Every structure is written in C-alpha cells, then in structure tokens.
Amino acid sequence: MSKSHDHFLPHDWHLWSQSKPVVIKPLTGGQTNQTFLIQSGTEQLVLRINSQVSKALDLNRGAETHALINANHAGLCAPLVYADPTHRYQVTRFISGHPWKKNAAGSLEQLARLLSSIHRLPSIDTYLDVPHKINSYWASIDKQASFYSCLEQIQQKIPSQITSAKQLGDDPTLCHNDLSAGNLIIGRTGQLYAIDWEYAAMGDRFYDLAVIVEEHNLDRLQQQSLLEYYLGHSLDEDHWQRLYLWRTVYKYLCLLWYAVQWSTGPSKSKLFAEKIDSYSQDLLRSASFKH
Q: Where is the Aminoglycoside phosphotransferase domain (predicted)?
C-alpha cells in the first residue's frame, strides 16, 4: 500500500471511520474530481475529493447528496457513507465488479430497467436548468481562446433546440444525467449500479437517454432497443425527434464543459483542446446547424 497519497485523507475522517483509513491507490477514469480507493477497517471505500472548479461547472453537491440518499434506499448506487456538509469531499462504499458493456447479452434491457428505477425515485428540489447551466459555463470560458468564436456560432442555434425539446417533453423526473461507461458498474451478484451522481437533477428523462446514446455510441438499432425496453412499447417519430434534440443539447453542454476545463485548468490541456474540436465539428456537421 502506498502512502504517497495519504495527505488527501480528510482531517475529520473520525466522523465516518472508527480507525484511521489508509489510502490504497488513486482511481482513474474521472475528469472532474480526485478519487481514491481507501481501506477503513475491513471495508474498502471510495474517497472523492471534489473539484476546485465545481462552481464553474455548476455542480450542486447538496442535490447530489439528496439524490444519493434516495438512490441508496432503492439499492441503485454505491452506498453513501459520508457527505461533507461543506462539500469538500464524499465517501461511498466500493462496489467490486466490472463496467457495463452495451454488447453483452441482455445489457440494454438491464440498463433500461435501471433507468426506469432511477426515474421513479422521489423528487428533489433541484432542476436541470439548461439555459442557466449554459450561462454558467460561458462565464468561465476564456474569451481569448481560439475556439471562442466557434462556440459563439454554435450557441446561436441552441436556444431553439432546447425549446423544441421541451415542447416534446412530459413531467420532470429525477435523472442521473451522467450515465457514462465509468458510472455503470455490474456488481458481483450481477446487479447494475449507477455511481457518481454529481449531475443529478429533476429533468426530462429523454436527456438521460440522450446521454447514454452519446456516451456509449449506440447505433440506431441499439437506440431503438433501449428506448423500447424503457418505454415498453414501439417508437413514433416524436420519440426519435425528442431523443435527437436532447442529444444535440447534450453534445453542446459537453463542448462547453471541456471549454471550461481548458479555461480554468492549471495548464491548457491538449486532451481538452482535442475534445473541444471534436464536439465543435460534430455539432457543425449536424443537420440542426445547416439551415
């Protein structure tokens, strides 16, 4: 066990552990926070040190805790051990397992069941306000960046996309909003869990579906299967249009997210610059932006 990361251990660890925990190793995969596997007595836990740019990224840690408590009661997430009231860090139990894979037998149906369970969770008092989130991101983006004018060009088309998506929507539900590959874990019993709820908020359930389609690069047939398992019936044109619009909005939010990371980070990351270029080109090629 390495001690090189022990300085990340919160000084108030005694609030959630009877003995002083030991930092085992960093956990990779996330791009926002610092996360570590730690040992507390006989238990393995996950310590997440919240990002210093949480405010710039419009992250509501109180809403995350509320959503996690609800998800924990329903057995849908890594059980919450402690959420620091000042939002510096969070501790959850470690789920031993493997990532969800879209091509495994029954995987889309299993994911649809998890998504349905998430959307049936009790409401919280935080909503995904997309225009507010966009404005929050823009406030932290470097106006001198080479990509700034491209972002402005794309931004002109986004409000109409949001309006059209909302017109096709229904009552808001609690959504995870970040069901990427790293946040879907199949435990040893075969149960699928959703972890990392920092973007959780009330919103359009098709936004959750759009995130999954984009993050897992689902093809048309996989999209149809997922939505039919989730809805319990065949799709019509409005379903496809609603999904398409939220996919466009999600890609734009991803573009701004990377722009914020590039603008606020200690160094101008080449990875973030490449992501910004990729999302920009994808959106500019989209049919939504051609007329």
A: 24-246
pLDDT in tens, 10-31: 999 999 999 999 999 999 766 6
Enumerate residues 6+ apart whose C-beta is below 8 A from 270.
none
What's the structural domain count of the chain?
2
The three-state secondary structure class of 121 is coil
- The Cα 210–Cα 247 span in angstroms is 5
What CATH code is carried by the domain that includes residue 79? 3.30.200.20
For residue 34, what are the β-bridge partners? 49
Residue with tokens 């002083």: 20
**Domain carrying residue 28:** 6-97
- CATH number for position 279: 3.90.1200.10
What is d(CA 182, CA 195) in angstroms, rounded to the nearest whole number? Answer: 8
Closest CA to 10 of 44, 60, 49, 43: 49
37 and 93 inside one domain: yes
Q: Are 23 and 146 contained in the same domain?
A: no
Considering the domain architecture, whether residues 171 and 223 belong to the same structural domain is answered as yes
Q: 164-208 pLDDT, tens per residue?
A: 999 999 999 999 999 999 999 999 999 999 999 999 999 999 999
Same domain? 147 vs 277: yes
- End-to-end, the C-alpha distance of the chain in Å comes to 58
Structure tokens that stand for 95 in this block: 């789920």
| Calpha distance 102→108 (Å, rounded) | 6
